[in-house]
Design a protein that fits this description.
Elements lengths: L1 H8 L3 H16 L4 H9 L4 H13 L6 H14 L1 H17 L7 H6 L1 H17 L3 H15 L1 E3 L4 E2 L4 E3 L4 E3 L4 E2 L4 E3 L3 E3 L11 E2 L4 E2 L4 E3 L3 E2 L4 E2 L4 E2 L7 E4 L4 E5 L5 H4 L10
Parallel strand pairs: 1-4, 2-5, 3-6, 4-7, 5-8, 6-9, 7-10, 8-11, 9-12, 10-13, 12-14
Antiparallel strand pairs: 14-15
Length: 270
């Protein structure tokens, strides 16, 4: 029984798919062999590959790739939820982004995915009291990916950030599970007091491009925020809000807006 459990524990469909897709890439495009071997096929686990990719991106003249890699390896070894969340994020992207056709694409090419994984490591460091290392990861992520997520922010699993440019998420923000957001979303604070001052985003929420959600407000589960909206008040669950300032304009239009990725208002406005 113990041997059967050990075999089951080694099954990793996401990682197996990524490795198989890596071999396909090399067959179709031999010039990519160095990239694929370095990022995927030289590694035994997804966690090892993620540590390598994050270190590649965050290393600088101030901190070598080997040091960053060591920190990431430690984080993944100490907290198994980091790898679990990464797998959920890959599944979310593959399911919701029509431009993503393979599990390997986020790991190799999608800066939104890589920035979120770097944040997850930074958030772990923040929780360990290693705030300067967490700040360094935030700084480099912002410089490299154009995405600024404070290491204190709490991010759920199954997050899909499409296009992933100019995302800003503040220190006390909380993002639930299975959330989708597009570029230029801001989850910002109000005032300058050191307090709980950022939004709380429920599960299954869809945040349209350029949406600004400001202050310690609640965005209810499975709601939609239309592109370009400025949200200053709580949003009830299963509603669509739009405008500046945003107002409820109807129902969410479906049970899971973050999965459907429908940004039109035709199913919401009466």
């Amino acid at each position: 029984m113990g041997q059967e459990q050990a075999q089951i524990s080694t099954v990793d469909p996401v990682w197996d798919a990524i490795k198989a897709e890596g071999q396909d890439i090399i067959t179709a495009e031999p010039a990519m062999a160095g990239v694929v071997y370095g990022a995927v096929l030289h590694h035994k686990t997804l966690e090892s590959a993620l540590a390598y990719r994050i270190a590649q991106k965050l290393a600088s003249g101030d901190m070598t790739e080997s040091v960053v890699n060591e920190v990431c390896v430690e984080a993944y070894a100490m907290d198994s939820t980091l790898g679990e969340a990464a797998r959920a994020d890959i599944g979310a992207i593959l399911d919701r982004d029509p431009a993503c056709h393979r599990s390997i694409q986020p790991l190799l090419y999608f800066k939104g995915f890589l920035a979120v994984q770097a944040h997850r490591v930074a958030h772990w460091l923040w929780g360990q009291g290693r705030k300067d290392m967490a700040y360094f990861a935030q700084m480099r992520s912002s410089e490299v990916f154009g995405i600024d997520i404070h290491p204190g922010a709490t991010i759920g699993k199954g997050l899909m950030i499409d296009h992933a440019h100019s995302i800003v998420i503040g220190e006390t923000a909380v993002v639930g599970d299975n959330v989708s957001m597009l570029h230029s979303v801001t989850l910002g604070g109000t005032g300058k007091e050191d307090q709980d001052r950022h939004p709380k985003i429920g599960n299954g929420v869809l945040l349209g491009a350029g949406a600004k959600v400001l202050g310690n407000i609640q965005i209810g589960h499975c709601s939609r925020v239309a592109a370009g909206s400025v949200v200053l008040r709580d949003v009830p669950p299963n509603k669509t809000v739009a405008g500046v300032p945003a107002k409820v304009v109807g129902e969410a239009g479906c049970d899971q807006p973050s999965n459907e990725m429908d940004h039109s208002l035709r199913n919401s406005v009466g």
